[in-house]
């Protein structure tokens, strides 16, 4: 009996150590930045430039291509948890193919930017980039907020704070604590999560058209989770399911055309 009790005590101690480590190092698991920024050669080849955005504590670099015409839509893009804006240059080029503007938001700690990523830092960064667009003379009704994966939580928050022509969510989740519990079912992950990005509790506060795009075979963020978020949103809203699409292959399955078509609908070139 004593041996059994001792074994249980040791097992409990090991479990508590694992829980403590998960809590302490969770941001290292959540955020996977590529710390290298784009080269000037790559930016020039892609017809983008680097712009400085003052986001409270830090001056951060985002990537920018202005629209070819004043009335064209402008995408404010908030990317996922891994990589950086540099590795997504082909995505931004595809978004701008019809002449739209693109402001690709550079996060703290990503792509050569100073600072460290966390929920509040990303919110502040998103707001600073939005305000930069307004300061350049662009109107809220031509700005389209686009969130990708982790960035959907940031985009949903921004859409509750600022006006825009629409919100596009690619591979959206209900909340990061829901995702954490899914990824670590043997831990009380839902209660340990620091950066929660509670989109489900915010989505019904959005007063702009919503477009939700999700792969039906997404193995990281289940299609059903995105559907739950979409169902809770107000009208007008549009769902675009990518048949057999996974989490990281939607840009090889025509999502860029969907986004450009939705942009033409949200920000028509001829408002009349």
- What percent of residues adopt helix (DSSP H or I)? 25-40%
Strand arrangement across the biggest beta sheet: 2-3-6-4-7-8-9-10
What percent strand? 15-25%
The string of secondary-structure elements, in order, is HHEHEEEEHEHEHEHHEHEH
Class of secondary structure makeup: alpha/beta
Radius of gyration of CA atoms, rounded to a whole number: 20 Å
Helix segment count?
A: 10
Low-confidence stretches: none
Largest sheet: 8 strands, mixed
Q: What is the terminal-to-terminal distance?
A: 82 Å
Total number of strands: 10
Provide keyphrases for this structure.
single chain, 272 residues, alpha/beta, 8-stranded mixed sheet, two-stranded parallel sheet
């Amino acid at each position: 009996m004593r041996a059994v009790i001792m074994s249980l005590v040791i097992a409990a101690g090991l479990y508590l150590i694992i829980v403590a480590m998960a809590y302490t190092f969770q941001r290292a698991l959540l955020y996977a930045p590529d710390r290298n920024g784009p080269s000037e050669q790559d930016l020039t080849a892609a017809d983008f430039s680097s712009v400085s955005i003052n986001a409270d504590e830090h001056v951060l670099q985002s990537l920018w291509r202005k629209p070819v015409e004043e009335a064209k839509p402008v995408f404010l893009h908030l990317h996922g948890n891994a990589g950086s804006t540099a590795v997504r240059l082909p995505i931004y080029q595809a978004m701008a193919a019809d002449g739209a503007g693109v402001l690709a938001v550079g996060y703290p700690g990503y792509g050569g930017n100073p600072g460290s990523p966390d929920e509040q830092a990303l919110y502040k960064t998103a707001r600073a980039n939005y305000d930069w667009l307004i300061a350049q003379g662009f109107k809220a009704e031509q700005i389209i907020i686009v969130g990708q994966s982790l960035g959907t939580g940031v985009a949903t928050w921004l859409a509750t704070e600022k006006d825009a022509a629409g919100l596009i969510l690619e591979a959206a989740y209900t909340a990061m604590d829901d995702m954490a519990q899914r990824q670590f079912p043997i831990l009380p992950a839902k209660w340990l999560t620091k950066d929660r990005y509670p989109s489900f509790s915010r989505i019904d506060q959005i007063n702009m058209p919503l477009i939700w795009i999700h792969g039906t075979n997404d193995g990281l963020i289940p299609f059903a989770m995105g559907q739950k978020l979409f169902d809770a949103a107000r009208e007008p809203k549009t769902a675009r399911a990518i048949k057999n699409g996974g989490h990281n292959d939607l840009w090889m399955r025509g999502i860029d055309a969907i986004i450009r078509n939705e942009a033409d609908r949200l920000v028509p070139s001829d408002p009349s």
